[in-house]
Amino acid sequence: MPLPVRFLNMVGRSVNAFGFQPVNLSLDKLLQKASDNTGLTDFGENDFRQPLTLLLDGLDKEANLSLLGRIIAKSDLLRTLENRLNFVALFKQQPDIEKQSIERPIFVVGPPRSGTTIFHDLLVMDPDNRVPLTWETARPFPPPETATYRTDPRIALAQADLKRVEKLLPEFKTMHPMGAERAQECVTMTSHDFTSMIYLVQFFVPTYDRWVMECDMRSALKWHRRFLQVLQWKAPGKRWALKSPQHLWHLQHIHREYPDALFVQTHRDPAKIVVSTSNLATTLHTMSSNHADLSKVTAYYAKALAQGYNNTVAYRKSGKLPASQVVDLYFRDFMADQVGTVRRAYEHFGIELSAEAATAMQSFLDNNPADKYGKHLYSLANTGMGEDELRDLFLEYEAYFDVPQESI
User: Fold this and answer.
1) Strand order, beta sheet including 239-243
2) Number of domains, the chain
């Protein structure tokens, strides 16, 4: 961390030693502050209170937050609560928004580090796809409009936010490329019901995250649909193209909410993914925590990911998801021919990949090589887990999907 941040956190530890907490993360205080900031009081249904209470408890008891971490958490939670208040107000004013249909959305469902991010970025290049971008998911009000979609001043605001993160963690861009106009994940939408795995990536809150893994997502997906309806209200597209690793744990719930959805499931050696993802999350935790523990994060992620994988195996085995609505893509094939792999997915769903879209995709790849900002380095040796111990967790998944192993 830069010297000013280290000094800030040192001050935080000093005042904590005297029993004083300068950044209040209590539920009542956050709700009141969000209402004060917006002049609104209706948060909608009360389902969000249980997960938000669990999250706040985890931030206090498990995340070992630094003073900067508490500032970041409070800012993020307040923005989300303010967005939620604005959603409720808008739907009261414009009830027809909720009547909009969402037909045959594409969901990229796969673990982190398996090519989902670049695959999603390529879908942005197809003008037939409506992909949620970082800037509009961070600040969805007023709802984006087609006429100003590429010139909206919120784009610059979002880019400035990302620049601040880059200054604090310059190495993070080697792990996960960011940009105001790059594709954003569904976890930013379900966070408005406070049922999102985005929080585990930012802060070590395992008790909260276990609740998220086990919940039925009804309330969260209601908000997911509402979010899409607001974004498409004045900036529509032909079809939504969406993505989140969280869908591994909730594939059956996504299918229940969107029965005609099309699923692209990506696959890569799960042991490789655990090591890479744990390194990424621990790096992010250093921005908000007084002590980020790679071995603790790895131990949690390994078992959690195994549960997500096993959930997809069980649902795919059940036969409830028609074969015509899902295609399996493998990381090694994707890296060998990225545009060709997108084309294969399109063909499976009976969608045409236009020459214009294919050319735009290849141009994006040429301008954004995987090592554009350097290589993400990580090692099993630093995780506290042995390879055999790790691989034993994923035997069922690897066997069912015939996933090839890589060196780790």
Assistant:
1) 129-130, 239-243, 106-109, 262-267, 326-330
2) 1
